[in-house]
Amino acid sequence: GESVGLHLPTLSVQEGDNSIINCAYSNSASDYFIWYKQESGKGPQFIIDIRSNMDKRQGQRVTVLLNKTVKHLSLQIAATQPGDSAVYFCAEKWNYGQNFVFGPGTRLSVLP
Amino acid sequence: NAGVTQTPKFQVLKTGQSMTLQCAQDMNHNSMYWYRQDPGMGLRLIYYSASEGTTDKGEVPNGYNVSRLNKREFSLRLESAAPSQTSVYFCASRIRGRTEAFFGQGTRLTVV
Questions:
Q1: Residues near B16 by Cβ (< 8 Å), separated by ≥ 6?
Q2: Which residues of chain B have a CB within 8 Å of the CB of A93?
Q3: Which of A24, B6, B7, B50 has the most CB atoms in a 10 Å sphere around its CB?
Q4: What pLDDT score was predicted for residue B45?
C-alpha cells in the first residue's frame, strides 16, 4: 500500500547549524502533510503542517517545503539547538480521511 | 488543563491475560485515536473514533477492541495478550477539521 517514508534514519548536526529532515511520500491523494517531534519518553508533539496546494510554509525557526513533482517533503530547522534533539516524524492525511499515516522517523542529534 | 491522559504508564502482562488501556482528553475534541509504536517504526493506527458513538479500524486492529465511552474517553482493550503486542501505545485526540493531534505520554506494555 501507499506509505510515507524517510530518506535518512539518523541525522547529526552541530549546534547552531541548520538541519534538514527529509520525507518521501507516495499517496497523491493526501491533502495535508504534518511534522511531529517526539522527545524521549514522551508522546509526539505537533510542529507544523502544510496543505497540499502549498509548496512552502514557515513557522518559528522551522520551514516545511513540499515538492509534489517528486513527492518529497522536508523540514528545515534554523540554528539548531540542543533542545531540538528528538525523533521527527512526517505524517500525511489522506484526502477526506480522518486518520494519518506516519513515516518511520528520523533521529536528530545536536552536537555541542 | 491536562490534555490527553493515559493510564497506566507501564504494564507487564502474561500471555493470555486481558487488560484495558484508558485514555481521556479534556479539550472537547471530536476525534480520538489509538496508535502503537514499535522500535524503529513510526506510529501505526490501531483504531480511531471520528466522533462520539463511532469507531473504525485502522491499519493494525487485530487483537484489539475499543470503546468510545463518551466524548472524553476512548479505551483500548486487549482480550488475550500476545508477545507481539509488546509495544508503546499512544492515545491522541484532535478537533475535526484541524490537523494538529495531541498525544498522551504513552503506555509501555510488555507481554511475556
A1: B80, B81
A2: 99
A3: B6
A4: 94
